């Protein structure tokens, strides 16, 4: 597995090895010792996936202390435009964002550290997003910021946004605990 830095400190793209033959392919997306060897000593506590139709925007979400978490995300079917925003006030990249396309044809993952908001847009129907987190979901610590308040250039398409995500506070009106 290869680790690639992004413009945001602590946020990495992970390129797993994919083995292909006439039957299809196999991609190992997590191996504890390999992660540790890359300096990523994380203990994942929860894993889930979502299935989205084209244009669904989910985000920008995060968990506040004491249930803040790091997570490793990927797309195992279809494709998504994935985005993170640095909410760490003392970080030199505070308020900056990073985006990339995650898709099932070229497997890669994004490691999102604590103190980041995360979201994505499904670029095709039946896109399957997989999330592995270092803490379990806590409704009391569930938070987010509006998807359109951080200067992110989202894909030019009709977006489908939940009422919950539409009502999140804007970035400038959110006092980050990180």
TrEMBL record:
Q: What does the subunit section of this Swiss-Prot or TrEMBL entry state?
A: Homodimer.
Q: Which PANTHER family match?
A: DTDP-6-DEOXY-D-GLUCOSE-3,5 EPIMERASE (PTHR21047), THYMIDINE DIPHOSPHO-4-KETO-RHAMNOSE 3,5-EPIMERASE (PTHR21047:SF2)
At what residues does the UniProt record annotate the site feature described as Participates in a stacking interaction with the thymidine ring of dTDP-4-oxo-6-deoxyglucose? 137
Query: NCBIfam families in the record, alphabetically?
Result: rmlC
Q: What are the EC numbers?
A: 5.1.3.13
Q: Which Pfam families match?
A: dTDP_sugar_isom
What the protein does comes down to: Catalyzes the epimerization of the C3' and C5'positions of dTDP-6-deoxy-D-xylo-4-hexulose, forming dTDP-6-deoxy-L-lyxo-4-hexulose.
List the GO cellular component terms: cytosol
| Record-given protein name | dTDP-4-dehydrorhamnose 3,5-epimerase
Q: Which reaction does it catalyse?
A: dTDP-4-dehydro-6-deoxy-alpha-D-glucose = dTDP-4-dehydro-beta-L-rhamnose
Sorted UniProt keywords? Isomerase
Q: Which GO terms describe its biological process?
A: dTDP-rhamnose biosynthetic process; polysaccharide biosynthetic process
- GO MF annotation: an example: dTDP-4-dehydrorhamnose 3,5-epimerase activity
Per the record, the pathway is: Carbohydrate biosynthesis; dTDP-L-rhamnose biosynthesis
Which family is this sequence assigned to? Answer: Belongs to the dTDP-4-dehydrorhamnose 3,5-epimerase family.
């Amino acid at each position: 597995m290869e680790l690639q830095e992004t413009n945001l400190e602590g946020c990495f793209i992970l390129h797993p090895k994919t083995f292909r033959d006439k039957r299809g392919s196999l991609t190992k997306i997590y191996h504890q010792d390999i992660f540790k060897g890359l300096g990523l000593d994380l203990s994942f506590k929860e894993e889930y996936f979502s299935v989205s139709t084209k244009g669904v925007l989910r985000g920008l979400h995060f968990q506040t202390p004491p249930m803040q978490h790091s997570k490793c995300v990927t797309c195992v079917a279809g494709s998504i435009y994935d985005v993170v925003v640095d909410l760490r006030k003392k970080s030199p990249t505070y308020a900056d964002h990073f985006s990339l396309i995650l898709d099932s044809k070229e497997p890669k993952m994004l490691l999102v550290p604590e103190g980041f908001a995360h979201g994505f847009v499904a670029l095709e129907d039946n896109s399957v997003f997989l999330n592995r987190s270092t803490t379990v979901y806590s409704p009391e610590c569930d938070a987010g910021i509006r998807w359109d308040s951080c200067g992110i250039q989202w894909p030019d398409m009709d977006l489908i946004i939940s009422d919950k995500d539409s009502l999140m506070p804007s970035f400038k009106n959110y006092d980050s605990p990180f």
